[in-house]
Structure formats: structure tokens, C-alpha cells
Amino acid sequence: GQDELADRKYLYSFDCMNWFLLPSITDSMIQQVAANARGPFRGEPSFVYPARTRHGDEDKGAGLVATEEMRLAVTVQQIDEEVSVVPRGAFIKTGDLVQLNRSFGGLSKAEGKSLDNYMHFREPKSIKKEGVQKRGDWCPSFDFLDVLSN
After folding, report:
1. Could you confirm whether the keyword DNA-binding appears in this record (predicted)?
2. Among the four residues 36, 40, 65, 124, which has the most C-beta atoms within 10 Å?
3. Same structural domain for residues 100 and 112?
4. Of 40, 39, 37, 59, which Cα lies nearest the Cα of 48?
């Protein structure tokens, strides 16, 4: 895709030769997986976890089925959202588009030692512009993600 942040795709393979695209997750998919998937992964994407229902439970996910592939997609994308980190300046935002910054040459040794120079590579949840703007080199094209040190 055009947008490096919004258009990310995830793949899985059984043999490192043939690759399959994981579906993008939705809120209903997260509910289905949370309500039904239990135990270790089985290694079969088409495996259907039986619907779990509990008497008197008003859980929206109850009664819905989930597949192993759905569970894998939810797991991978949630882990990626929590742990993907990029150095400040590696990506640039122009308008609504996030792209690789082709002029980024890396962080200096001193910059690389500071968590303030690393950002979560996900949609921002809590940008604290005050702290970033105090740096003196704040740039809205670079500083559009949550800083790791916050």
C-alpha cells in the first residue's frame, strides 16, 4: 500500500516457501477470539473453535465462532501494535500519508541511547506534544507517533 502505517499486511507460512495473507482484524473478530479461543495454537488455520456460551452471560462474543486463522491474526496484530518501534525520523507524515523517509540516515550514537528518539509504530494513542516540543527540534512531519519514553 501507499501508507506504511495503515496498509501493513501480515503473512504466515507452514514451510517458509508458501505464504498466506492474514485477514485484517475487526472489533467483532477480537470479540469472537476472546470469547472462544482457548489453549495452545493447533497449527491448522481452518480449525473452528466451538462457540462458548454461559448461562446468564451478556458477553457480546458469546455464541460466535472463531477460527485458528482469526486467532492468529488477532494475536499477531495486537503484539505488533504493542512492540513495533521505529527511530524518530525513519518515517515521515505528509497529509494523511505515512511513508518511509528516504533521506533518513539513522540516529547518531548519542541519539540512539535516548528513548525519546524512538516511537511506537502504530496509530498514536497519547501524543504529548508539550514534552516533544520542548526538545527544540520538534517537527510535525516526524513527531506524529507516540514517543517510547512516555
Report:
1. no
2. 36
3. yes
4. 37
CA atoms within 13 A on the CB side of 40: 2
Q: Is residue 97 domain-shared with residue 110, that is, in the same domain?
A: yes
CA distance 3 to 14: 28
Q: What is the pLDDT of residue 50?
A: 86
Q: Is the pLDDT of residue 18 over 50?
A: yes
Angle at the Cα of 69 (from 51 to 46), degrees rounded to 5? 70
Per-residue DSSP letter, 61: T
Asked whether the predicted pLDDT for residue 128 surpasses 70, the reply is: no
Q: How far is CA 43 from CA 77, 130, 139, in A?
A: 18, 47, 45
Tell me: pLDDT of 61 over 70: no
